[in-house]
Amino acid sequence: MKTIINKISKKLNFPFQENKAKIEYLGLGKITGWVFSRKINLTEVRLVLGNKIVSKSNVEIERGDVCQKYNYQGKPGFELKLPTNLKNFDKDANIKIIALSSNGHRIFECISKRKRKQIYHKIREILNSSYLGIHGNLDGIQSDGLIHGWASWIYLKKVAWVWLQCEGIDPPAYKCNHFREEVSSLGFKTTKVGFKINPQELNKICSQKSYYISFDKEGKYKLPSKKTEYLPIIFSEDEIYEPKLKVIEKNENTGYLDNINNSPKNLKNAWKELENFRIYLNGIERELNKLEYLNNVKKELTPRNNFFKKLKNNLVK
Fold it and tell me: What residues does 80 pair with on adjacent strands?
């Protein structure tokens, strides 16, 4: 009866399976996922090429979502960091991702038979890529209005390039040579790994479209990002310096919300961005006023301080 239940649960993907695993991200620099067994304690995951270990990782990353879904207690997550080259490996050898028990006697393959061909084919492409071992992240559009991110190799001290992929344009390339302090804690050879992209320099046809950043010009290998990213409204130079758009005139009796509500649909986001920029400038103005006030107070106190200093010197004499 137990065998029948296990077979049914595997086919239907029921949460009470004894062994469960998933590869969630296949990248040029790392492979991540999770694995657990209800029967044995799985402590290590390995990427194997033939009879050689390409990479290995402890099974120790917290995954609350997985534990909750499958009613499991433990830390089932893992991250396999990939090397920059495989000179001493037979790249045509069989590929496997396996999980091992603490004594190494029990082995569990992390990819189901149904998905092995597809996933192992992708891994072989990665292992044969000239970009092997590169890491990175797309942070998205930040408060300065620029697209931020980073890309580099851990073990190589060379500058990486990335490409912006958006429908309708030939992907432009960007050099990753901006300083990123937080990357130093990750073990990279250099901290000049960041990139910054001004969306307003892109073709107007990209306006408000989704985009992603890739390690390669073809767009095959994406930089990881937390969500789908979208470009802002992109204006041509003519629209910036000689506006032809119908902008609602703001008078003393018209507020910010009125301008948004009464503006055309394609200008609502522009009004919001303009208001955020106004608030930012107001903050700078307040700080400048404070500095000016303190400077004036200092000037007023200087003659008094000089007077008391002279008086003190005379009394001493």
Answer: 31
The pLDDT tens digits of the residues spanning 197-241 come to 999 999 999 999 999 999 999 999 999 999 999 999 998 655 555
Three-class SS state of 98: strand
CATH number of 134-230: 3.90.1070, 2.150.10, 3.30.160, 2.60.40? 2.60.40
Enter the tokens of residue 137. Answer: 């992240």
Entry field: residues in the chain: 317
| Exposed/middle/buried for residue 74 (C-beta within 10 Å: 0-12, 13-18, 19+) | middle
Question: Does residue 238 come out as left (phi exceeding 0), alpha (psi in the -120 to 50 range) or beta?
Answer: alpha
Is 2-127 a CATH 3.30.70 domain? no
Query: What tokens does 51 get?
Result: 């009879």
What tokens does 142 get?
């930040």
Q: If residue 3 lies in a helix (H) or strand (E), which one and from where to where?
A: helix 2-12
C-alpha to C-alpha distance for 186 and 136, rounded to whole angstroms: 11
Q: What are the backbone dihedrals phi and psi of residue 310, each rounded to the nearest 5 degrees, phi first?
A: -65, -40
Phi, psi dihedral angles at 54 (to 5 degrees): -80, -45
What would the pLDDT profile of 266-314 be if each residue is shown by its tens digit? Answer: 666 776 777 777 777 877 877 787 677 667 655 655 555 565 555 556 6
Q: What pairing do the DSSP bridges indicate for beta strands 107-109 and 173-176?
A: unpaired
Question: CA torsion, points 240, 241, 246, 249, in degrees to nearest 10?
Answer: 110
Is residue 46 left, alpha or beta, with left meaning phi > 0 and alpha meaning psi from -120 to 50? beta
